[in-house]
Amino acid sequence: MQSIRCLALVAIALVVAGCSSFSGGGSPTLSRDASWGVAPLVNFAQAPQAGERAEQILISILAEQGVTPLMYPQQPQKDLLLQDDRERQSQALAWAREQKLAYVITGSVEEWQYKNGLDGEPAVGISLQILEPATGRVVWSSSGARAGWSRESVAGAAQKVLRKLVGNLDFE
After folding, report:
1. Once rounded to an integer, what is the mean pLDDT over residues 123-133?
2. Would you say residue 158 lies in a domain?
3. Distance CA 151, CA 125 (A)
């Protein structure tokens, strides 16, 4: 009976591990007290404004880690829909240089959807980068993806991916 339980636990662990994928190297030690900013996340997903949704979740997760980033100035909603995400990201990095921020966290949303089928599982894929605005140097980069369970929301799956990515950062 004990061996059946152990086998069942191993099987469950393998299924859960198979639902997520993460890549990226170790993090250099980063100061929580440094001046941080959040630049737009480029939306490569088909869902409108997935980047903006992920940014808001990212800000709250950074706050959990004791980091209080400045948010780039938002564009009016009508301009936001007309402007290219990469252009917004470039403008935000120029803003970060003007503000003399030490670090800017940016990246992209590759997937933000419910998969087709009876269960409609949420699927999220996000990449993050930390840049030094003054030099443009990439200090850290990582990406993660997750397919959630049928009753989970896309935002909930995104929160888990972002929490794992930010959790890999080494703060002092």
Report:
1. 97
2. yes
3. 18
Q: Give the count of domains, the chain.
A: 1
Report if residue 140 sits inside a domain.
yes
Answer whether residue 78 is part of any domain. Answer: yes
Strand arrangement, sheet containing 122-132: 20-24, 137-147, 122-132, 103-114, 36-43, 70-71
Q: Give the dihedral sign, CA 155/129/45/165.
A: negative
Q: Which domain holds residue 94?
A: 21-171
**Given a cut of 70, is residue 137 above it in pLDDT?**
yes
- On whether residue 2 sits in a domain, the answer given is no
* The overall pTM is greater than 0.85: no
Q: Which of 24, 47, 67 is nearest to 115 (CA)?
A: 47
**How many Cα atoms within 13 Å fall on the side-chain side of residue 129?**
17
Tell me: pLDDT of 10 over 50: no
Is-contact 147 123, C-beta < 8 A? Answer: yes
pLDDT at residue 48 tops 70: yes
Rounded to 5°, the CA angle 60-63-65 comes to 120
Q: Which two tokens stand for residue 120?
A: 């409609």
User: 3-state class of 138 per DSSP?
Assistant: strand
Token duo for residue 56: 């808001």
